[in-house]
Specification:
Layout: E1 2-5, E2 8-11, H1 21-34, H2 59-73, H3 80-87, H4 92-102, H5 109-114, H6 136-142, H7 144-157, H8 167-175, H9 183-196
Antiparallel strand pairs: 1-2
Protein backbone atom coordinates (compact mmCIF):
# COMPACT_ATOMS: atom_id res chain seq x y z
CA UNK A 1 0.00 0.00 0.00
CA UNK A 2 2.79 2.40 0.85
CA UNK A 3 5.57 3.34 3.24
CA UNK A 4 7.14 6.26 5.06
CA UNK A 5 10.26 7.65 3.37
CA UNK A 6 12.05 10.41 5.31
CA UNK A 7 8.81 11.44 7.05
CA UNK A 8 6.74 11.52 3.84
CA UNK A 9 4.19 8.86 2.91
CA UNK A 10 4.79 7.31 -0.52
CA UNK A 11 2.01 5.28 -2.10
CA UNK A 12 3.07 1.92 -3.56
CA UNK A 13 -0.06 0.48 -5.06
CA UNK A 14 -0.05 -3.14 -6.18
CA UNK A 15 -2.64 -4.53 -8.55
CA UNK A 16 -4.05 -8.04 -8.66
CA UNK A 17 -3.85 -8.11 -12.44
CA UNK A 18 -1.82 -6.26 -15.02
CA UNK A 19 -3.42 -2.90 -15.80
CA UNK A 20 -4.93 -2.35 -19.22
CA UNK A 21 -4.67 0.91 -21.14
CA UNK A 22 -8.24 1.88 -20.20
CA UNK A 23 -7.41 1.36 -16.50
CA UNK A 24 -4.65 3.96 -16.51
CA UNK A 25 -7.08 6.89 -16.55
CA UNK A 26 -8.77 5.55 -13.39
CA UNK A 27 -5.42 4.88 -11.71
CA UNK A 28 -4.25 8.43 -12.41
CA UNK A 29 -7.57 9.79 -11.11
CA UNK A 30 -7.20 7.70 -7.93
CA UNK A 31 -3.62 8.88 -7.43
CA UNK A 32 -4.65 12.52 -7.83
CA UNK A 33 -7.32 12.00 -5.15
CA UNK A 34 -5.09 10.25 -2.63
CA UNK A 35 -2.13 12.59 -3.17
CA UNK A 36 -4.09 15.26 -1.31
CA UNK A 37 -4.50 13.05 1.76
CA UNK A 38 -2.18 14.02 4.58
CA UNK A 39 -1.07 11.21 6.85
CA UNK A 40 0.66 11.54 10.19
CA UNK A 41 3.29 9.00 11.28
CA UNK A 42 2.19 7.00 14.33
CA UNK A 43 -1.44 8.07 14.11
CA UNK A 44 -3.97 5.28 13.56
CA UNK A 45 -6.21 5.67 10.52
CA UNK A 46 -9.95 5.26 10.94
CA UNK A 47 -13.38 5.72 9.40
CA UNK A 48 -15.73 8.62 10.12
CA UNK A 49 -19.47 8.62 9.38
CA UNK A 50 -20.31 12.24 8.62
CA UNK A 51 -24.07 11.70 8.94
CA UNK A 52 -23.81 11.08 12.69
CA UNK A 53 -22.80 13.66 15.33
CA UNK A 54 -20.40 11.22 17.01
CA UNK A 55 -18.90 10.13 13.62
CA UNK A 56 -19.85 6.48 14.15
CA UNK A 57 -22.07 4.58 11.72
CA UNK A 58 -25.55 3.43 12.67
CA UNK A 59 -28.31 1.93 10.55
CA UNK A 60 -30.66 4.60 11.91
CA UNK A 61 -28.45 7.44 10.64
CA UNK A 62 -28.07 5.73 7.23
CA UNK A 63 -31.85 5.37 7.02
CA UNK A 64 -32.28 9.08 7.82
CA UNK A 65 -29.78 10.02 5.11
CA UNK A 66 -31.60 7.86 2.55
CA UNK A 67 -34.99 9.29 3.53
CA UNK A 68 -33.64 12.84 3.44
CA UNK A 69 -32.06 12.25 0.02
CA UNK A 70 -35.23 10.59 -1.21
CA UNK A 71 -37.35 13.54 -0.02
CA UNK A 72 -35.00 16.17 -1.43
CA UNK A 73 -34.93 14.56 -4.88
CA UNK A 74 -38.65 14.09 -5.15
CA UNK A 75 -41.85 16.03 -4.98
CA UNK A 76 -45.22 14.22 -4.85
CA UNK A 77 -45.04 10.40 -5.19
CA UNK A 78 -41.62 10.11 -6.83
CA UNK A 79 -39.20 8.25 -4.56
CA UNK A 80 -41.81 7.09 -2.07
CA UNK A 81 -41.16 3.47 -3.07
CA UNK A 82 -37.93 3.57 -1.07
CA UNK A 83 -39.71 4.73 2.07
CA UNK A 84 -42.33 2.02 1.54
CA UNK A 85 -39.58 -0.59 1.24
CA UNK A 86 -37.77 0.39 4.44
CA UNK A 87 -40.97 0.70 6.49
CA UNK A 88 -42.30 -2.70 5.38
CA UNK A 89 -42.67 -5.56 7.86
CA UNK A 90 -40.38 -7.87 5.88
CA UNK A 91 -36.98 -9.33 6.82
CA UNK A 92 -34.16 -6.78 6.51
CA UNK A 93 -32.27 -8.83 3.93
CA UNK A 94 -35.43 -8.98 1.79
CA UNK A 95 -35.89 -5.21 2.07
CA UNK A 96 -32.25 -4.68 1.14
CA UNK A 97 -32.65 -6.89 -1.94
CA UNK A 98 -35.82 -5.03 -2.96
CA UNK A 99 -34.05 -1.69 -2.52
CA UNK A 100 -31.16 -2.89 -4.72
CA UNK A 101 -33.64 -4.04 -7.39
CA UNK A 102 -35.40 -0.67 -7.41
CA UNK A 103 -32.02 1.10 -7.67
CA UNK A 104 -30.87 -1.38 -10.38
CA UNK A 105 -27.91 -2.41 -8.24
CA UNK A 106 -28.27 -6.19 -8.39
CA UNK A 107 -25.30 -8.13 -9.76
CA UNK A 108 -27.04 -9.08 -12.99
CA UNK A 109 -24.91 -9.83 -16.03
CA UNK A 110 -25.81 -6.48 -17.62
CA UNK A 111 -24.76 -4.56 -14.50
CA UNK A 112 -21.53 -6.54 -14.18
CA UNK A 113 -20.68 -5.85 -17.82
CA UNK A 114 -21.45 -2.14 -17.27
CA UNK A 115 -18.92 -2.24 -14.41
CA UNK A 116 -16.41 -3.81 -16.82
CA UNK A 117 -16.48 -7.26 -15.23
CA UNK A 118 -15.57 -9.78 -17.90
CA UNK A 119 -18.35 -12.31 -18.51
CA UNK A 120 -18.36 -14.81 -21.38
CA UNK A 121 -21.27 -14.23 -23.80
CA UNK A 122 -22.69 -17.67 -23.08
CA UNK A 123 -23.03 -16.78 -19.39
CA UNK A 124 -24.61 -13.35 -19.88
CA UNK A 125 -28.05 -14.74 -20.66
CA UNK A 126 -30.89 -15.20 -18.19
CA UNK A 127 -30.37 -18.10 -15.78
CA UNK A 128 -34.07 -19.00 -15.97
CA UNK A 129 -35.07 -18.86 -19.65
CA UNK A 130 -31.62 -19.06 -21.29
CA UNK A 131 -32.82 -16.88 -24.17
CA UNK A 132 -32.49 -13.19 -23.20
CA UNK A 133 -29.76 -10.90 -21.88
CA UNK A 134 -29.91 -10.92 -18.07
CA UNK A 135 -30.78 -7.49 -16.68
CA UNK A 136 -32.74 -6.53 -13.56
CA UNK A 137 -36.08 -6.00 -15.27
CA UNK A 138 -35.83 -9.17 -17.34
CA UNK A 139 -34.64 -11.37 -14.47
CA UNK A 140 -37.26 -10.26 -11.94
CA UNK A 141 -40.30 -9.26 -14.04
CA UNK A 142 -40.14 -10.05 -17.79
CA UNK A 143 -38.66 -13.56 -17.96
CA UNK A 144 -41.33 -16.14 -18.71
CA UNK A 145 -40.56 -18.10 -15.53
CA UNK A 146 -40.63 -15.10 -13.18
CA UNK A 147 -43.66 -13.48 -14.84
CA UNK A 148 -45.53 -16.77 -14.39
CA UNK A 149 -44.61 -16.68 -10.71
CA UNK A 150 -45.96 -13.11 -10.43
CA UNK A 151 -49.25 -14.11 -12.06
CA UNK A 152 -49.47 -17.17 -9.78
CA UNK A 153 -49.10 -14.83 -6.79
CA UNK A 154 -51.81 -12.54 -8.21
CA UNK A 155 -54.08 -15.55 -8.69
CA UNK A 156 -53.40 -16.74 -5.15
CA UNK A 157 -54.32 -13.26 -3.86
CA UNK A 158 -57.49 -13.23 -6.00
CA UNK A 159 -56.27 -10.28 -8.09
CA UNK A 160 -55.90 -9.68 -11.82
CA UNK A 161 -53.62 -7.20 -13.54
CA UNK A 162 -51.16 -6.59 -16.31
CA UNK A 163 -47.95 -5.66 -14.57
CA UNK A 164 -45.32 -3.25 -15.95
CA UNK A 165 -41.83 -4.46 -16.79
CA UNK A 166 -39.72 -1.85 -15.00
CA UNK A 167 -38.90 -2.39 -11.32
CA UNK A 168 -40.30 0.87 -9.89
CA UNK A 169 -43.46 0.76 -12.01
CA UNK A 170 -43.94 -2.92 -11.16
CA UNK A 171 -43.62 -2.20 -7.43
CA UNK A 172 -46.04 0.74 -7.52
CA UNK A 173 -48.57 -1.10 -9.72
CA UNK A 174 -48.45 -4.32 -7.70
CA UNK A 175 -48.80 -2.56 -4.35
CA UNK A 176 -51.75 -0.47 -5.52
CA UNK A 177 -53.85 -3.42 -6.74
CA UNK A 178 -55.88 -3.93 -3.59
CA UNK A 179 -57.74 -1.53 -1.39
CA UNK A 180 -55.90 0.75 1.07
CA UNK A 181 -56.08 -1.90 3.77
CA UNK A 182 -54.24 -4.40 1.54
CA UNK A 183 -51.43 -2.03 0.49
CA UNK A 184 -49.04 -2.94 3.33
CA UNK A 185 -49.63 -6.65 2.73
CA UNK A 186 -48.98 -6.24 -1.00
CA UNK A 187 -45.75 -4.34 -0.30
CA UNK A 188 -44.54 -7.19 1.91
CA UNK A 189 -45.56 -9.77 -0.69
CA UNK A 190 -43.68 -7.87 -3.42
CA UNK A 191 -40.56 -7.53 -1.28
CA UNK A 192 -40.54 -11.20 -0.29
CA UNK A 193 -41.28 -12.28 -3.85
CA UNK A 194 -38.29 -10.46 -5.38
CA UNK A 195 -36.14 -11.75 -2.55
CA UNK A 196 -37.17 -15.34 -3.34
CA UNK A 197 -36.49 -14.92 -7.05
Amino acid sequence: MGEWVEGIWEWKLEWVRELRERDLFHVNELLSLIDNVSLTPGKIDGWKWKASPNSSFSVNSAYKVMCRDSRSKTQSNKGLEFQYIWKAAAPHKAKFSAWRILKDRMATCENLIRRQVSIPNAESICVFCRSQQEDTNHLFFICQRTSEAWYDILSWLGLQAVLPSSAKDHFLAFTSLGNKRDTKLLRNVWICMVWCI
